[in-house]
Amino acid sequence: MVRRLTISLLIMSSEERFSTALHNAARVWRLALDRRLKDLGVSQAGWLSIAYIAKAEAPLSQAELASLVQVEAATMVSTIDRLEKAGLVQRLPSESDRRVKLLVVTAEGQAIYDKVRTIADSLRRELIGRIDPEKVAVATAVLEELQELIENS
Fold first, then answer.
1. pLDDT at position 126
2. 152: number of CA atoms within 13 Å, CB side?
3. Residue 5 maps to a domain
4. Which domain holds residue 80?
5. Domain harbouring 70, CATH code
6. Tell me: the pLDDT tens digits for 61-115?
7. What's the pLDDT at 19?
8. Does the residue 34 lie in any domain?
9. Using alpha carbons only, what angle is made at residue 142 by residues 151 and 113, rounded to the nearest 5 degrees?
10. Using an 8 Å Cβ cutoff, are 6 and 17 in contact?
11. Is the residue at 32 inside a domain?
């Protein structure tokens, strides 16, 4: 398997290698974090949703959260239903649009987020700490530039 992977990387263009590495690194990063968070009793979609809601400067709408988590609105509704039933998030009516529900974390949800953040920070330090800081700075700049190009295209 390793030999086949090495051969296939050799015939890829640098752009293909970059996009493959970007996709794979993001996927395995999330899986590594998910493995460390499995004892929290919340799914990946759940802890990711709690993290976005907790970090938001103002309450998020369900549609905004779906966009951040990169899922369809219908999928987000079932995730929020589970989180609300578990007492981790609360839906509040919007003052400006009665059709919109805004999301906030409860005290229990904040406790989950605090654990997620601690574990994520530890993983980040453990993995990125093994890479030359100059390489991390260059990689960060490239990824930020790529994100800006995508968002502005």
1. 96
2. 6
3. no
4. 42-151
5. 1.10.10.10
6. 999 999 999 999 889 999 999 999 999 999 999 888 888 899 999 999 999 999 9
7. 93
8. no
9. 70
10. no
11. no
- pLDDT of 2 over the 80 cut: no
Tokens encoding 14: 């640098």
Contacts of 98 (CB under 8 A, 6+ apart): none
* Structure tokens, 104: 């906030």
Do 103 and 63 touch, CB atoms closer than 8 A?
A: no
- Which pTM was predicted? 0.78
Q: What is the 3-state secondary structure (H, E, C) of the chain?
A: CHHHHHHHHHHCCHHHHHHHHHHHHHHHHHHHHHHHHHHHCCCHHHHHHHHHHHHCCCCEEHHHHHHHHCCCHHHHHHHHHHHHHCCCEEEEECCCCCCCEEEEECHHHHHHHHHHHHHHHHHHHHHHCCCCHHHHHHHHHHHHHHHHHHHCC
Give CA–CA dist 108/113, Å, rounded.
Answer: 9
For 115-145, the pLDDT digits (tens) are 999 999 999 999 999 999 999 999 999 999 9
Q: How far apart are CA 92 and CA 90, in angstroms?
A: 6
As for how many domains the chain has, the answer is 1
Bridge partners of 102, per DSSP, are 61, 92
Token reading at 72: 């369809």
